[in-house]
Specification:
26% strand; 12 strands; five-stranded antiparallel β-sheet; 9 helices; alpha+beta; 36% helix
Length: 296
């Protein structure tokens, strides 16, 4: 069987079990036989077990069996929204759907994620080997390139761009955008990633990729009007977001985070449909920026 067809089956297997919560092999086969992939042939236990092993090896997702012989995702936290496994599965699921829609390619429009694949590959290699990298970088507005030797800690995809979180000598953490990297070279200098470093936790107090621990944690309350009531409900700005009031014509949401400049820019982009109720300092900042925008 071709690799592409196998990957479709792996993705189907994980998505089906994840959506159902738990399934016996018989129940799984009932769903399998309703797909075009089955061609009317049941999923044998040996094939199922090979698929389970491949899913764990490729995605790091463990399909386990409970006392009632039902199969479930053992490490379901691997499918959290921003995990690599979830991103890979989502990407492959969409890829499968699009590839099956022959004749409709000119009617399915996608967003390009600009990135130099070789830069991404080099950084991943450096992270795997725990070696420092020499980066030639051009900041926005800079007249010349800068060359930094940094320790690559993690990679984050945000708003169609790849970013690298790295430690730069004694200056602490810095976040670099891949599309502004001119060149990357591996060095022979190794570094030790702290045992307590957690990439997910590092960004958990922020909206996007801009991080600054000098910005204090805030309880932010937003009031959304019109269609933004539904947009913010369906696509939360932050994992801490929760609805605290639904008044019909408006909905109030509460968030706990460090409101860095990219969060402020996100609120500005919602225009008159989102109002900052708390804290007053952010409300005044948003107001002043809207005034300046109108003057421009």
């Amino acid at each position: 069987m071709k690799a592409a067809e196998l990957f479709k089956e792996y993705v189907w297997l994980v998505n089906t079990i994840s959506r159902a919560g738990a399934l016996t092999l018989r129940e799984l086969n009932e769903r399998w036989l309703r797909t075009d992939m089955s061609e009317g042939v049941e999923l044998s236990r040996s094939t199922f077990n090979r698929h389970r092993a491949a899913v764990e090896d490729i995605f790091g997702i463990i399909i386990d069996c409970d006392s009632q012989y039902r199969y479930y995702i053992y490490n379901s936290d691997a499918l959290r929204d921003e995990s690599v496994q979830n991103w890979m599965l989502s990407t492959m699921t969409v890829s499968n759907i699009v590839s099956e829609a022959r004749g409709l390619h000119d009617r399915i429009l996608l967003e390009l994620i600009p990135s130099d694949g070789e830069h991404l590959r080099t950084v991943v290699d450096a992270m795997r080997r725990s070696v420092r990298i020499a980066i030639t970088y051009r900041r926005y507005g800079a007249d010349a390139d800068s060359v930094w030797t940094v320790e690559p800690y993690c990679i984050k995809l945000f708003r169609r761009r790849w970013y690298l979180l790295c430690r730069y000598s004694d200056k602490g953490f810095v976040t670099l955008s891949f599309d502004r990297i001119r060149s990357i070279e591996l060095t022979e200098e190794t570094f030790v990633l702290p045992d307590d470093f957690d990439a997910q936790a590092f960004f958990s107090q922020y909206f996007g990729v801009m991080t600054d621990d000098r910005v204090p944690m805030e309880r932010v309350v937003l009031r959304a009007f019109g269609n933004e009531r539904y947009a913010l409900r369906d696509l939360p700005l932050h994992h801490s977001q929760k609805m605290i009031k639904d008044a019909g014509e408006y909905v109030d949401f509460e968030l706990f985070l460090r409101p860095t400049s990219d969060f402020i820019a996100q609120i500005l982009s919602r225009g008159r449909w989102v109002k900052v109720l708390k804290p007053e300092s952010i409300a005044q900042k948003i107001k002043q920026m809207h005034i300046e925008a109108a003057e421009n």
